[in-house]
Amino acid sequence: MPNMIIRNSLFIFFLFLFYSCGNKTFDTSEELYAYLAEENNGYKYSKEINGVTYILQYRPTDLLVKQEIGDSITIDKVNQLRGKYGKNLYFNLSMSKNGQELLNSAVGDRGRFGQMVNDLAFYMNEKVNVYTPTKDTLDMLDFVYPRIYGMSNATTIMLVYPREEKYLKEEYLNFTIDDLGFYTGEVRFKVKTKPLKNEPKLNF
Questions:
Q1: Which of 184, 170, 94, 95 shows the shortest CA–CA distance to 138?
Q2: Can you say how many angstroms the Cα of residue 99 is from the centroid of all Cα atoms in its chain?
Q3: Quick count: other Cβ atoms within 10 Å of Cβ 192?
Q4: How many angstroms separate the Cα of 152 from the Cα of each of 36, 67, 103?
Q5: pLDDT reading at 9 higher than 90
Q6: Residue 54, by phi and psi: left (phi above 0), alpha (psi -120 to 50) or beta?
Q7: Contact 196, 168 (CB under 8 A)
Q8: Cβ–Cβ under 8 Å, residues 116 and 102
Q9: What is the mean pLDDT of residues 118-132?
Q10: What percent of the chain is predicted at pLDDT more than 90?
Q11: At 4, phi and psi to the nearest 5?
Q12: E strands, 59-116, in order
């Protein structure tokens, strides 16, 4: 009898350990966003250099699923969209100068303004680089720069990379952002891969 109690206790302990180490699940997008915003959870990284604030935040698959699926939720549709978006890693890179969009700093200088718009719209795949500790480079699959100048307090770009196991086996990924003309030098983030492999989910 004591052995059975011990075995049952150990089973409960390991069951708890298994679930506590797995993916966290949230009932609403708002709860998930709040969790992602806590830097100690491993999904958000920030730096301020020469008055420019950089925030790099991971965007889990289920937030993209939720955005597309709307209120027409079925298990088949959820699984289909998880398969579609789960092939990639998504990050939002937000940049602001003194609490405003980067382009605000170039107002009045037509040449600088035009160059910055050009860089943000067409060349961020050259300005942002991601590589492993062993110097393997992740090719950026796509980036999305919504042109909503004057409607936000930060310039935000979504970056898309392949979700490949060989990269996620590394302890971390290096993100580097070239100087965009603000005398910041190259900006670096070291992004841990464990949170990416155990990304939080939504309870659809």
A1: 170
A2: 21
A3: 14
A4: 20, 20, 11
A5: no
A6: beta
A7: yes
A8: yes
A9: 94
A10: 69
A11: -65, -40
A12: 88-97, 100-101
**Site of tokens 């797995």:** 22
**The two structure tokens encoding residue 145:** 């720069």
Task: Write the pLDDT tens digit of every residue in 21-60.
Answer: 468 999 999 999 999 999 999 999 999 999 999 999 999 9
Q: What is the band of 7 on the pLDDT scale with cuts at 50, 70, 90?
A: very low
What region does 142 belong to: left with phi over 0, alpha with psi -120 to 50, or beta?
A: beta
Using DSSP, state whether 29 is helix, strand or coil.
Answer: helix
Judged by DSSP in three states, 182 sits in coil
Residues 84-109, buried b or exposed e (16+ Cβ, 10 A)? ebbebbbbbbbbbbeeebbbbbbeee
* 172-177 and 128-131 strand pairing: antiparallel
Q: Report the predicted TM-score, pTM, of the whole model to 2 decimal places.
A: 0.84
93: left (phi over 0), alpha (psi -120 to 50) or beta: beta
Confidence of residue 115 (pLDDT cuts 50, 70, 90): confident
Q: What is the DSSP letter of 108?
A: T
